[in-house]
Design brief:
The protein is built from nine helices and nine strands. The chain is an alpha/beta fold and 301 residues long. It has two domains: 165 residues, Rossmann fold, CATH 3.40.50.300; 106 residues, GMP Synthetase, Chain A, domain 3. It has a six-stranded mixed beta sheet with strand order 2-3-1-4-5-6, with helices on both faces. Strands 7-8-9 form a three-stranded mixed beta sheet. Helix 6 runs antiparallel to helix 8. The chain is globular.
């Protein structure tokens, strides 16, 4: 039975690249929504995941990592992240316990200092440091911003995540249940499918190629056998990148299809046929029309 003092609200996760925002969001929701990679700038859009229990509904907004942009896509990503920390109920800043405060962190701290919203600092990856270091790290951030709470966590090992949920609930207003109990994201399936494909490409490619890749899902519908047929384009910037993505005798793209199909079948709960094509769109990250066509446009968020 739902609590009469039911709480709900929108909570933005913000931090520099590779601090573990997507890992944390997936762990809190209990299912994979955002893609994860050891490469920086994995998340490009705002990704919403929904946590619901008898006490509250929390809509988490995962954002791109704050970095120094080198192209129009990067500018979109940073703008998206800062926009997502406006007009919400709470902001979570996630930092890496094993790294000193960097330029990206300072940009966020400057932004939060002027932001009147409640804010919680999550110090992630505490499993990588000695416990004696923790107090110094906490004090260094508290000197910058007056956080409402500071919680040391490990998103990967799921340490102190229940404390995170309870602290968030304590800061949210009484409100309605915006989404059904079993809904875990507000993104269309096309979007999540494209992200799963892109995650596998990030895993198998190296150096600059991951940042030059986009995925555009063209079709998702059952075929004549009743199997979900999905067709998607993989966009790269140069012909040489196309060859790398396809791989020798098509081996790399075959691995991508196998692993992505497994995740997609888990998401959809049905058998999937996945067809991928690799296409070259020169310098697409700096072309506004191509960015918009691929879903990277600030006006849409």
């Amino acid at each position: 039975m739902r609590n009469k003092e039911f709480k709900s609200g929108f909570v933005t996760l913000i931090g520099r690249p590779n601090v573990g925002k997507s890992t944390l969001m997936n762990a809190l929701v209990g299912q994979k929504i955002a893609i994860m990679s050891d490469k920086a700038q994995t998340t490009r859009n705002k990704i919403q995941a929904i946590y619901t229990d008898d006490e509250a509904q929390i809509i988490f907004i995962d954002t791109p990592g704050i970095h120094k942009p080198k192209h129009a896509l990067g500018e979109f990503m940073v703008e998206t992240a800062f926009q997502a920390s406006q007009g919400v109920d709470l902001v979570l800043m996630l930092v890496n316990a094993s790294e000193a405060i960097g330029p990206g962190d300072r940009r966020i701290l400057d932004h939060l200092r002027e932001n009147p919203l409640p804010k919680i600092l999550l110090i992630n990856k505490i499993d990588l440091i000695h416990p004696d270091q923790l107090l110094t790290i906490i004090n260094s951030y508290r000197q910058e911003v007056n956080f409402d709470a500071v919680i040391p966590i490990s998103a990967l090992q799921e340490i102190n995540l229940e404390q995170v949920l309870q602290t968030i609930k304590s800061k949210l207003p009484i409100g309605p249940q915006y989404y059904p109990q079993d809904q875990i994201t507000d993104h269309p399936e096309y979007f999540v499918v494209a992200e799963f494909i892109r995650e596998k490409l990030l895993y198998f490619t190296r150096e600059e190629i991951p940042h030059s890749i986009a995925v555009n899902v063209l079709k998702m519908r059952p075929d004549e056998e009743g199997i979900m047929s999905i067709e998607a384009d993989i966009i790269v910037e140069r012909k040489s990148q196309k060859g790398i993505v396809i791989g020798k005798k098509g081996q790399l793209i075959k691995k991508v299809k196998q692993l992505a199909r497994k995740d997609i079948e888990g998401l959809l709960g049905e058998k999937v046929r996945l067809n991928l094509w690799v296409k070259v769109q020169k310098d697409w990250r700096n072309h506004q029309k191509q960015l918009k066509d691929l879903g990277y446009h600030p006006d849409e968020y």
